[in-house]
């Protein structure tokens, strides 16, 4: 039940963004909602009808290929999106301020998509096509397939609404992606340090006792020399990254350090402590 509530909330935000911002201003951000805006502009087909009609053949294909839970959740998401596209009024929050509308629309759309993606759900459309096409083109990632389909829809929008609106659409897509990623994966992107140093024990002790950060010691061997090399792993917040660099540099200027993003950390209440 909680999952369905999230789908309802997410599709409401997506439909609100489409009806109040993207359709009135002719901003095509991809997806079936973007294709629906193009069809509405040319043929006056309602958005809810376009979304429903476009999804039907792909749901038939999905029923045969995907697991049943994914299918029913996606079907529910598509139905709710079409429902909200049909019932929510079409107006502009700030008719005289184009840019504020774009920001608001991107926030709403990104929030809706993030809520949907957080639990691995979908509303059909181009992401469903990407999932289905993945079986035919296994060497191509879903992200690339989705980018091709959505990019094609944005390109079609240039012939209907002009190149200027297409550029605005690309800016909106960037904002939508950032908001959706933050909601789907969490706002805190921490830093993962992998440090290889002959003075690794001293560095680890300083991190443990002075900075109160956990350290995992790893037994590593040089691929060329075959000798055992001290290495440790540590995860810190973004703001602690410069401090960690200074600690390593102070103890061993020649240390080999790999720093990468840790997008999700689970267990031991670690996410709470890392902030």
From TrEMBL:
Transmembrane segments: 38-63, 70-92, 98-117, 137-163
Tree of life domain: Bacteria
Pfam families: DUF2179 (PF10035), YitT_membrane (PF02588)
Intracellular or extracellular location(s): Cell membrane
Protein transport listed as a keyword: no
Main location: membrane
GO-annotated cellular components: plasma membrane
Protein name (record): Membrane protein
């Amino acid at each position: 039940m909680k999952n369905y509530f999230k789908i309802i909330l997410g599709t409401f935000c997506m439909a609100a963004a489409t009806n109040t911002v993207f359709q009135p201003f002719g901003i095509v951000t991809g997806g079936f909602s973007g294709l629906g805006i193009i069809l509405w502009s040319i043929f006056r087909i309602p958005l809810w009808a376009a979304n429903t009609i476009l999804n039907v053949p792909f749901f038939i294909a999905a029923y045969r290929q995907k697991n049943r839970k994914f299918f029913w959740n996606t079907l529910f998401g598509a139905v709710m999106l079409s429902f909200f596209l049909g019932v929510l009024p079409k107006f502009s929050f700030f008719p005289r301020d184009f840019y504020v509308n774009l920001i608001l629309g991107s926030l709403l759309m990104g929030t809706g998509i993030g809520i949907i993606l957080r639990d691995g759900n979908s509303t059909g459309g181009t992401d469903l096509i990407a999932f289905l096409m993945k079986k035919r083109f296994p060497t191509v990632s879903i992200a690339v397939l989705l980018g091709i389909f959505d990019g094609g829809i944005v390109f079609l929008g240039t012939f209907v609404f002009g190149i200027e609106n297409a550029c605005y659409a690309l800016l909106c897509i960037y904002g939508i992606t950032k908001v959706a990623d933050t909601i789907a994966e969490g706002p805190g992107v921490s830093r993962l340090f992998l440090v290889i140093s002959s003075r690794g024990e001293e560095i680890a002790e300083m991190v443990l006792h002075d900075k109160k950060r956990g350290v995992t010691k790893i037994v590593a061997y040089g691929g060329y020399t075959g000798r055992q090399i001290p290495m440790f792993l540590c995860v810190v917040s973004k703001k602690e990254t410069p401090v960690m660099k200074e600690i390593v540099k102070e103890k061993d200027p020649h240390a080999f350090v790999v720093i990468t993003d840790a997008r999700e950390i689970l267990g031991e209440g670690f996410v709470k402590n890392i902030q």
